[in-house]
Design a protein that fits this description.
This protein is of the alpha+beta class. The two termini are 77 Å apart. The protein has 10 helices and 12 strands. It folds into 3 domains: 197 residues, no CATH class; 83 residues, Signal transduction histidine kinase, dimerisation/phosphotransfer (DHp) domain (Helix Hairpins, Orthogonal Bundle); 143 residues, Heat Shock Protein 90 (2-Layer Sandwich). A hairpin with a 6-residue loop joins strand 11 and strand 12.
């Protein structure tokens, strides 16, 4: 099986590979520590049990020795090797399975009369035994003081021979570590599979097609929340891009008419010498004014979206009275305000809302415009009401879109840009408020709501 050169680089950057490698290293270390401890525990337990039995057989035989009489050894099924050896290493008495060679050369002292040892011969046979020294008093009565030694032992269990125990425990630990690593690889891959699907789908999404959505797994875990947040972000991005495209299309359309008129006038002045140049330039000035108005309002939109607004306490009652008093031409404006209607905001921007609403109301009113500033719970309300034809129910939201102008607006103000109400709503939203058209017995009723300043 051939491995591409980039495979190792890909694995080095893979969370699944890194997590699995970390778990593999940790599992090997844990298995090694547990295995070493388990080997020591098993070996110590088996050796302790065997030496306890061999010491019991040796102690029992020494205890049965009497002056002038040494009883025969009594080996057991678990301790079949029993010997009595003198100080010169000769076997004095032995069990049937021991033979005539001493089992060990270990000679315990008077202070430590018993010693547990393991003796291995050249034939790879190992014997675990207890060497016991016959007490001096008994040795004097039986052999005139010559030291004698009792050996009781058994063949070493196969598990303790060589490194068999370590090999078995190590093999089990390696198998456990491999199983743990494999389980981690599978579990990590299953966890990361939705993330890989999200990544693949995100790579397919382009600016030309924002309608795609990432796969959203069921449940309420972190990956499901990530997918939901990604889809919500894509939805907002698609809406923003759609609005931007529509806005750009409308802007290009609105700018095309004055630019076309300006170019036509200038081309006529160049192509036809009989046309007075000053007169042609004078006819082109309204088109430049139209362009300037549109560009100024577009810049106002840009500043509103990209520049943090400065805030100060603003008395809406005083602001409404001042703006109403400034409307000295056209349909009369009647103001009614309550005291202490204060909000936190930008005075210039809030004044532009009131001005735009009053100009719009005067344009459509027949005989009177009423404006009021009052408190309504935790909100401050500015209401502008005219006695004109009003706004149809289906157009009440559409008129706040940029460059949207109804037929009545085009008739009453042919040179308007259709950005005034859109800018007013944008300022209201930037102040955590709202601007809408509500029901009224007659005419149009525009209502501006802003959070009331308290304290």
């Amino acid at each position: 099986m051939s491995i591409r050169p980039g495979t190792f680089l890909l694995l080095s950057h893979s969370i699944q590979a890194r997590v699995t490698l970390t778990v593999a290293v940790v599992s090997v270390l844990v298995a090694a520590v547990i295995g070493a401890g388990l080997c020591l525990l098993i070996r110590h337990r088996i050796e302790s049990d065997i030496f306890m039995e061999t010491r019991g057989v040796a102690t029992e035989w020494i205890g049965r020795m009497e002056p002038g009489r040494v009883p025969p050894p009594m080996p057991s099924a678990r301790v079949p090797l029993v010997q009595l050896v003198d100080s010169r290493g000769r076997v004095v008495m032995a069990g049937p399975m021991t033979g005539d060679r001493p089992l060990s050369t270990v000679r315990p002292s008077e202070e430590n009369r018993f010693a547990d040892v393991t003796e291995c011969s050249a034939s790879d046979r190992c014997v675990m035994l207890t060497a016991g020294r016959v007490p001096s008093l008994q040795a004097w009565e039986l052999w005139k003081g010559e030291p004698h030694f009792v050996y009781a032992g058994t063949d070493q269990p196969p598990a303790l021979r060589g490194h068999r125990l370590e090999f078995l425990v190590g093999a089990g630990g390696a198998l456990l570590a491999a199983l743990w690593t494999w389980t981690t690889w599978r579990a990590t891959g299953r966890i990361l599979r939705p993330i890989n699907a999200i990544r693949q789908r995100m790579s397919e999404i382009t600016a030309n097609d924002l309608s795609l959505r990432v796969p959203q797994p069921s449940g309420r875990d972190e990956i499901a929340q990530l997918a939901r947040a990604a889809n919500q972000t894509l939805g907002r991005l698609e809406s923003a891009v759609t609005r931007q495209r529509e806005f750009a299309a409308v802007v290009s359309h609105e700018l095309k008419s004055p630019l076309t008129g300006l170019r036509t006038g200038l081309e006529e002045a160049l192509l036809y010498p009989e046309i007075d140049a000053r007169e042609a330039i004078a006819r082109s000035l309204p088109a430049t004014d139209r362009l300037r108005e549109i560009i100024d309002e577009l810049l106002a939109f840009a500043r509103l979206r990209n520049t943090p607004r400065s805030s100060e306490p603003v008395d809406l009652g005083a602001l409404v009275r001042a703006e109403a008093a400034a409307r000295t031409t056209g349909v009369p404006v009647h103001a009614r305000t309550e005291p202490d209607v204060r909000v936190l905001g930008n005075r210039v921007q809030l004044a532009s809302i009131v001005t735009n609403l009053l100009v719009n109301a005067q344009r459509h009113a027949i005989g009177q415009v009423d404006v009021s500033a009052e408190r309504a719970g935790a909100q401050a309300l500015v209401v502008v009401l005219d006695d004109g034809d009003g706004v149809a129910q289906e157009d009440r939201e559409r008129i706040f879109d940029p460059f949207i102008r109804l037929e009545a607006g085009r008739r009453l103000d042919p040179g308007g840009s259709g950005l005034g109400l859109a800018l007013c709503r944008a300022i209201a939203v930037a102040h955590d408020g709202s601007l809408c058209v509500e029901d009224s017995p007659r005419g149009a009723r525009f209502v501006l709501r802003l959070p009331l300043l308290t304290g």
